[in-house]
Each structure stands twice: as C-alpha cells, then as structure tokens.
Amino acid sequence: MPADRKKVDVAKQMFARAEGATMDEVIAAVGGPKYNLLRSLKAKGYDVRSAKEGNATRYWATPPRRRLFDLRVSPNGQTTLPKEVRERLGVAHGGRLRATLEDENRLAVTPATSSVQDLFGILGKPPRSATLEEMDEGIRRAVVEKYLRAVGRKR
C-alpha cells in the first residue's frame, strides 16, 4: 500500500469493488476494521449492502446516484421539500435555505449559513436584574455559607 493513500480510501475502494469485501479482507489490507466507514458512507447516501458468507459478512458500498425529485408548486408559489432532501440538507421546520440560479434553467439549493446575529432577541428581556450591591451581598452570603460547611458548623 503506497504511503500517500489513506487507509480509509483503500477500504472505501474495497467496498466499492464488484465483489465487495469482508471485514477480514479490510483488516488484512489496512490493519483494522472499518465499521464506522460503512456507517458514514450510508449517511452520505451510499447504498450499503451485506451478505453472510459462512462466519464472515461481505459488504458492498455503491456510490449515490443523482436523485431526481419532482416538486409541485402551489398557486402561492410554494413547494414542499421531500423528507429525504430535508434530512440530507439538515433543515428542520422553520429552517432557512439558500437557492442559487446557476444557469438559465438550473437551481441549486443549499442550507443557509447561520450567524450569531440570527440569534439576537431569541431569549427576550430577563424578568429582573440585580444591582451591584445585591450581587456583592449574594457573593458574601455564599462565601460565609461555604466556609461554615467546610468547618462543620451551621448558621
């Protein structure tokens, strides 16, 4: 194995072969099991299949194909994203998306990046604030109580 290739890439190529790979074959090639790689590939849209072969399991990972989604536009110009698209983009109810018109007839949709400014005002105004004197008095009381607990006395 050439030093410049990562072990994960080697394992990914082994799973992508037509004959797939068992975990024993992967361990022999890269020095350790790659079950987490299979999970991450599945999360990225790969089709991960497995088949038992005696005491071993053979795994195949097929790269994701371009998925086609038909969307219907309401009279108000609104559309609903399929659940799979929302999950892949990580967008929940009320989430924000950014649409980019790339060509004359091509639209790219990506999650909108959030900034700290988007969170401004989310908590509202606190019900009451303390003065500096009230804070100092609270700190004094806490220090005395901690000392009394440390020496084993009660107030």
SS content category: alpha+beta
Determine the mean pLDDT: 84
CATH hierarchy class name of the domain at 7-62: Mainly Alpha
Specify the biggest β-sheet. 3 strands, antiparallel
- Assess the beta-strand content as a share of residues: 15-25%
Number of strands: 5
Unreliable segments of 5+ consecutive residues: none
Radius of gyration, rounded?
A: 28 Å
The SSE string, one letter per element, is HEHHEEHEEH
Quote the CATH topology of the domain at 7-62: Arc Repressor Mutant, subunit A
The geometry reads as flat
Strand order of the largest sheet: 1-3-2
How many H/I helical runs? 5
CATH architecture designation of the domain at 7-62: Orthogonal Bundle
- Distance from first to last alpha carbon: 72 Å
User: Considering DSSP H and I runs of 4 or more, what fraction of the residues is helical?
Assistant: 25-40%
How would you explain this protein's 3D organization?
- Among the domains are: 56 residues, Arc Repressor Mutant, subunit A (Orthogonal Bundle), CATH 1.10.10; 30 residues, no CATH class.
- The protein contains five helices and five strands, in the order H-E-H-H-E-E-H-E-E-H.
- The protein is flat and about 75 Å long.
- The mean pLDDT is 84.
- It is an alpha+beta fold and 155 residues long.
- A three-stranded antiparallel β-sheet has the order 1-3-2. Strands 4-5 form a two-stranded antiparallel ribbon.
- 8% of the residues are buried.
- 35% of the residues lie in helices and 19% in strands.
